[in-house]
Design goal:
mainly alpha
């Protein structure tokens, strides 16, 4: 986002492209970006186009950036394309930063709670288990249950670790195959409790990227091709590729989307409205902002429910631990009296 903003501002001054790239490189915040822009400046001075120079520089830059720059060069609207890219990436970065900031506290609480629980099960419980065993009296059911859980963690910790490793390895193997990626993506869009949130997020990525590509001057088929590589959900991206094939055969974009259940009905209908009105870019921008807002609101609502749920769960665990420890003591005290 910062890179695009710098290009948009400097290009309006009328400087040659090579000087613009060199000036942006001098302001780069990281060494990797600075070196990339220096290579781009060398290629541009050697006669390559700006988009081709960015493409030759490596895979650090996303395909949306390169294709939008290419379209801006061909249409003579490079400054406007960089402004559009700045808006696109700035919105994406702010949304991601907001989500990370909101999730930080619950995740830290869960990690600390899990560590404390494991320490209690593996270290603390065995210490008072031996003391209670010497009492010779019958222990309460809650204490026996806690001792059984502690014994399970002590004896079979390796099995739990093995299960986690198997799950991680299986997930990595699935992500390497076409069918595996489709299976994982379908789980998010169709079987997950958060499937509506995943669908809205994919729809937001589709609408925002398509609007950016079309505004830059790319044809619909090329815009769909780029968008299919940007959408994070593989099943949704595969649906975009099928829509592209339908558009290449002469069908309307909305008609192709209507036959695929991966696209939300609202997104399909608004795309049809934009096609019929001849203002598809603006319509996709509006619907992209709508889905962005829905994702933000839904995420905030879920997180507002998550925090009290974590508090209640921790309170229940604490009560169980206290009862398991103190009930035998009360029993022993009563027998002495």
């Amino acid at each position: 986002a910062i890179l695009c903003s710098q290009f948009a501002i400097i290009l309006t001054s009328g400087l040659p492209i090579v000087h613009c790239v060199e000036m942006v490189a001098a302001q780069a915040r990281t060494r990797e970006v600075r070196q990339l822009l220096e290579r781009v400046a060398e290629d541009v001075s050697g006669g390559y186009s700006l988009a081709q120079s960015f493409s030759n520089a490596g895979t650090l830059l996303p395909v949306t950036f390169i294709e939008t720059v290419r379209a801006g060069e061909q249409s003579g609207t490079l400054e406007l394309c960089f402004q559009r890219l700045h808006t696109y990436y700035d919105k994406s970065a702010k949304t991601r930063a907001k989500l990370v900031s909101t999730l930080t506290y619950p995740v830290l609480v869960l990690i600390v709670a899990a560590i404390v629980f494991l320490i209690i099960m593996v270290v603390a419980v065995p210490m008072f288990t031996s003391a209670f065993a010497e009492m010779g009296s019958e222990l309460p059911a809650i204490t026996r249950g806690l001792m059984a859980v502690s014994g399970f963690f002590q004896r079979y910790w390796w099995a739990l670790l093995l299960i986690v490793l198997v799950i991680l390895i299986a997930r990595l193997l699935l992500r390497r195959s076409e069918q595996g990626r489709l299976f994982l993506a379908a789980g998010k869009l169709r079987r997950s409790p958060l499937r509506r949130l995943h669908q809205m997020n994919a729809a937001s990525q589709f609408a925002s990227t398509m609007a950016t590509m079309l505004t830059a001057g790319l044809p619909v088929t090329r815009a769909l091709e780029v968008t299919s590589g940007v959408v994070s959900n593989y099943l949704f991206a595969d649906a975009v590729r099928r829509v592209r094939q339908g558009v290449e055969q002469g069908r309307a974009l909305a008609d192709c989307m209507l036959t695929d259940p991966a696209f939300p009905r609202l997104l399909t209908e608004m795309t049809g409205v934009g096609e019929r009105s001849g203002n598809l870019e603006q319509t996709l921008t509006v619907i992209g902002d709508y889905f962005d807002n829905e994702v933000s609101v839904t995420t905030q609502r879920l997180l507002s429910l998550l925090e009290p749920a974590i508090t209640i769960a921790l309170a229940v665990i604490t009560v169980v631990l206290l009862l398991a420890v103190y009930l035998p003591m009360f029993t022993m005290y009563g027998s002495l009296i």
